[in-house]
Each structure stands twice: as structure tokens, then as C-alpha cells.
Design brief:
The structure is a homodimer of 299-residue chains. Chain A has 299 residues and is of the alpha+beta class. Chain A has one domain (3-237): Aminohydrolase, N-terminal nucleophile (Ntn) domain (Glutamine Phosphoribosylpyrophosphate, subunit 1, domain 1), CATH 3.60.20.10. Helices cover 39% and strands 23% of the residues of chain A. In chain A, a hairpin with a 2-residue loop joins strand 1 (3-9) and strand 2 (12-17). In chain A, 40% of the residues are buried. Chains A and B meet through helix 3, helix 4, strand 12, helix 5 and helix 6 of A and helix 3, helix 4, strand 12, helix 5 and helix 6 of B.
Amino acid sequence: MTYCVAIKVNEGLVMAADTRTAAGVDDVRTYNKMHTFEFPGDRVFVVLSAGNLATTQHVLAQAQRDLNDPTATVNLRTVRHMFDAADYLGQLSVRAQKQVTQQLQGQYSSLNVETTLILGGQIQGEEPAIYLIYPVGNCIAASPETPFLQIGEIKYGKPILDRFVRPHVTLEDAARCALVSLDSTMRSNISVGPPVDLAFLPRDALKVKHSLRLDLDTPYYSQLKETWARQLENAVRSLPKFEWELQPQLPLQAQTQSQQPQAQAQMGVQTQQNGLNAAAQMQFGSGNNGNNGSGGQSY
Amino acid sequence: MTYCVAIKVNEGLVMAADTRTAAGVDDVRTYNKMHTFEFPGDRVFVVLSAGNLATTQHVLAQAQRDLNDPTATVNLRTVRHMFDAADYLGQLSVRAQKQVTQQLQGQYSSLNVETTLILGGQIQGEEPAIYLIYPVGNCIAASPETPFLQIGEIKYGKPILDRFVRPHVTLEDAARCALVSLDSTMRSNISVGPPVDLAFLPRDALKVKHSLRLDLDTPYYSQLKETWARQLENAVRSLPKFEWELQPQLPLQAQTQSQQPQAQAQMGVQTQQNGLNAAAQMQFGSGNNGNNGSGGQSY
């Protein structure tokens, strides 16, 4: 499995990928899933891949070969638009899959040679763009409403992107969000694993400005993970209280004791309750003060 | 689609479910997926369901019929252990599926009549327990390391549970976490939808102590959603800065200006940088001060 994400914000593009490749749980390796084609000052492409590794390598090798072939009708140096680049990679992908399928002649019918790609980059004079290239060769761009694309194991890491990533977010905040998204996925699916690759393509830089590989023992990454865990715990604890937490009842035990200890016990409990009440009501906010009794949302 | 989650903490059980049922996007309805069998003071069961609605209703109807049948060899009132209750429901589920499949006689082979259940509850003298009952009738309990079970669209809402839910967490914090988990899922998958049902089964209460139905316009739920969105945004913004954010370079433009404005511009920028630097370094923590230059984690 794999998890890759590309984010497009006003400031440019962020691309991120894990590096775990598995052919079964007994054959796990580390592979780079982020591939850069850079022509500084003119154009830059970053390709992320999920799916069959052989197909992916076939596509990348052919793209490289076309660059060095003066007779090639199209290559990444000559395409005019980002869409054309995505379309070109899609065609290479379909061709690579067809070649294997024809060789198989119906054998190994369960073998999946599909690959799904994300292309991110910018060509001079054009907007930066990200495209998701499907195994059948067609592609879609990201929308301004949902300015990110994911491939591979996409679900675990999607909520944080859905909530946070908007076009106005800075490139660095988008990158931190991508790292959290990857971290959440790696916690929930062991077939997605570190180290993580991260590339920054600021608008009009026409090159990869920063490229990081973050492993579990990289100080920045371990600090990010630790900070996120702590912040999330604080976030859950700061959520509004339920009504019975705001007006806790006296423990039954205190009421069955003799008069004197009961009074003391009640006072002790009362003080504690008032403290809890004040704090809890602050978090509950105004406008709910009349709604703390039983009933309310219960049914 | 559906999303249900059951959490077991030291204080007891929390059960939560969405209410959206869909037979295609053009046939969406609201159905209760949380079903309670309560024998206060003796035993309590809450069943959550995902999958074929007819199969689920068949299982529940049969369980109810067995309760009213004095000749029934086993029912929810007579089972001795929580495992036996889970096993009993699993058998009812298999029987319901078999009946439909036999009636079909090979027709509608694409029809999926499976249902997956979660049983949560407690029998007097036993520990509270949660079981996930698979369509084939067998079941698993939650583990102390991962004290929750999910059915349906489980991935979007899993990271927050993975990070936060531990046995020592309070019942109310576990419930808030379940609500966040449901909310994240509903944002990412429209086939999971409000209102949300939430049940509290404190240890040894042997009944459902609180039962809430929360819709988008329920004040508590809308406040929880708003608080969570704000807290999450703060959490992302408090993550450690990248090295180049800690030592930002002067903008090139300032350097091309004449001597006097350049000095002013630089001072202005410098002040701003120092402010950013101080705040950023605080978040970056100690021990990284020697690592702010270029290089470092870049490759």
C-alpha cells in the first residue's frame, strides 16, 4: 500500500509520500514514490505513484527515455500545458499496463498491474497545477473547494485535509497538514510507512525549493508527532461537557451517612462541584444556562 | 453505508451510530441503527448494525420473538455470558442470510445480504463487554490496547480513536471522541449522516443511563463541531516550524533598493522576523538551535 497527497494553495504546491512498498506482509521494502523532473526556470514536475511498482518504473523510465530522444514527438520538456503532461503520463501508464497484460496471455488473472499517479508542477507562464491520473489514463485536476488530491490509502488521512486545507493556507501550514495526514495513516495502516518525502514547489519558483526526507528519528518529525498528539488530546478535553457533567448529582453514599458526616461530605462535594461547574460552563458557552437540567437532548 | 463505534473504558461502555441508510444515492432514508434490550438491574444489551437492513431487522425481530417465547432454548434474557449473547446473535444473523439466499435460488447474485453487528452490554456479575459479530456468525471482543470496535465506514474516524481512546479515559471523554469520529466520517462520506445516536452504559449500572439523539441543529452537537474545528485549526498552527521559517531570508526586492530605503526596509523586515523567530523557536523547542541553517534534513 501507499499513501501520497498533493496540495495546491495560492502560494504553490506541496507534495508528500510515504516510502513503504509491500508484496505481501513478508516482503516489505522502502521505495521512493516521489519522482522529480526539473528544468529550473522553465518547468518542474513531481510525480507521486501508488499501485504496481513495475508499471510505475516503466512509466518513469519511458518518460526519461523520451527526454533524451530528439525524435520523440512529445516529452516532459516539450509539452505545452500541465494537462498535456498529465495526459502524456496517462498514455505511458496505459501502454505499460497493456504490454504486461499481453505478455500474460490470460495467466495470473488476479495480478493487478494498475498504477495511479499524481502529477504536480508548473510550466512557465501557467498556473501551478495538480492532476490525479487514473490507471485508464484519464485525469482530473483538484478543485478550489477541495484543493488536494490523494492516492493509495486515502481515508485515514482525509479528515484533517478536509477540515484545514483551503487555498489561502500557507505552503508550510499545508505541508504540516500533509505530514499529520501521513502520520495518521501510518498509525492506522502498517502497509503505509516511514520515511516520508516532502517537496515544496512555491508558485513561480519553477523548481523544487525544499525537499525533505523525514524519518521517525528526524528531530523535526518526532517533534511534530509529539506536538500533534498533545494538541489533539487537549482538543478532545476542551470539547463541551454533557449536561449531567455540568450539574452532577450528589453521590448516594453521602446521603446514607449520619447527619454530621453527611453535612461535611456534602459540603466537600459541593465545593468540588462548583469548581467543575464553573469550568464546564465556560466551555459550554453562553445561551445554554437554562438547559442544564435533565431532559434536554435526552430521549 | 453506516458508521457505528463502540468504546469500552474502565468506567463502562459508550455506543454511537449514525442513522443514514441508502439503497443508492437516490434512495436515502433515516433509520435507527442502535437497538436496546434492557433488563434493568440484571442485564443490558445495545446492538449496532451495518449492512443489509432487512437482515438486521430479521435478527432483531427474532431476538425479540425469542424473548417472548417461553419454549425458546436460548434468548437474551437467559444467556449466561456476554460471549453467549454475541454467539446467539451471530447464529440469528447467519440463519437470516441463509433464508434469503435459499429463496433467491442463484438470482440477484450481486445482492449482499450480509450484516455486521456490534454487541455491547453487561450481565450482572460479569465485566461490561463489546463484541464485533461478523456476517459469518463468529465474533471478536475488543482488546485492552485498542478498546474500541467499529463497523461500516470505519477508516475516516479511526485516527482520532487510535490516538485518544485508552481504558483510563472517562466515559464522557470517550463519548466526545466518538462524536468527533462520527463527525469526521460524515464530512468525508455523504452516505454516513446525522442525526447521531449515543448511549452511555456505565459499569454496573446494568441499564442505558443516558441516551442522546444529536442532530445538526442540536445546540450541544453544533457547539462540539465548532469547538473541534477551532481546536484542530489551532493544533495545526501550533506545529513546529520548518528551518527556513526560523531564519527567513531578506526579500530580494529590498536589496535592490537605494541605500536609505533599503536600510529602512531591512529594519522593518528584521523586526518582523525577530518576532516570528522568537515565537517559532519556542514551538521548535530547545536542542534544535544549532540546526537552523540550510542543509539539516534537506537532501
